[in-house]
Amino acid sequence: MIRRPKIPTISLPMLTLAVLAGALMSFPADLAAQEHLIKFATLAPEGSTWMNVMKEYDAAIRKESGGRLGFRIYPSGVQGDEKDVLRKIKLGQLQSAGITGNGLTSIAPSARILDTPFLFRDTSEIDYLYDAFGPEIEKSLEESGFINLGWAEVGDVYIFTNDPIRKTSDLSATKMWMWEGDPVAEAAFSALGVTPIPLTITDVLTSLQTHLIDGVYTSPLAAIALQWFTRVKYMLDIPLANATGAVVMSKKKFEELPADLRTILRKNGRKYMRRLTELSRRDNHTSLGTLRKNGVTFTTLDAREAAQTYETAGRKARRLLVGKLYDADLLDRIEQALESRRRSAADSAR
Known about the structure:
Blueprint: E1 36-42, H1 49-64, E2 69-74, H2 82-91, E3 96-100, H3 101-104, H4 123-143, E4 146-151, E5 155-161, H5 169-172, E6 177-179, H6 183-191, E7 197-199, H7 204-209, E8 215-218, H8 220-225, E9 234-243, E10 245-250, H9 251-256, H10 259-293, E11 297-299, H11 303-320, H12 328-349
Parallel strand pairs: 1-2, 1-3, 6-7, 9-11
Antiparallel strand pairs: 3-10, 4-10, 5-8, 5-9
Helix pairs in contact: 1-10, 6-11
């Protein structure tokens, strides 16, 4: 029997990720009446690393602005899923949100190139691409009426199943979940020969319990936070993708702020979202050990088969999304930049 672990400090998506019950974070009355209030919503629950870092971010901007600027934070999905939250921002009911790649689809589709399968080999490549292409991708956010206050990585995404995946053909027999409306997941599974079952993220645990599905994909940390790991037995020990996230804000609201407050908000956003990314990487690594201790068996594929299959599937999936999320030029430049970096690293290692 799988024992429910003591859940470590957690951070959340996107891919992954979490809609858990929770209460609104409250502030003392003297902090709630600052001159400029930013209403922020996230799926992340109270006690998560995401929420802890957001509170640090809020405390920093309150202090630096002399109390003129601050967040009112709505955690745990109390304002709805990401589509609901983005709609409320456009209506002016909210001003900011922490969203995963799935949420970015509707407001900055080109950003989803960072979520495509088998694109990265390690975290240094992830950091390199965000530095090189992040500013360009952020322009598409502004065109949709949003400002990016900082990228916040969700982490590597793995496939979890109830039957072991020991060869790539095993995947096609899996009743795999797909986050409803996610074109990246659809392209990835198509390239792998899998016909997924689309469901909202809130339906996943129940669907695992009723065996409507027997496979999911998420980060190790989210598998624990969402309790999905209690309904699966195996994890394929090869990352499917790296899931992105961001803290976005209404461009209209941002531009209404005095110039000094805009600077404070943006500077600290970059700082604290970088901290969140580093903590997410740490917590995801810790979560792998937690999964092992609680009965999840890690499976691997033959190294040669995996390398060939995944490289081919990655290229195919990324091409399937050209014209839907991003153009061929952006994809070519990103793939060429990574290949050039890898060649340089190989030459240096000789």
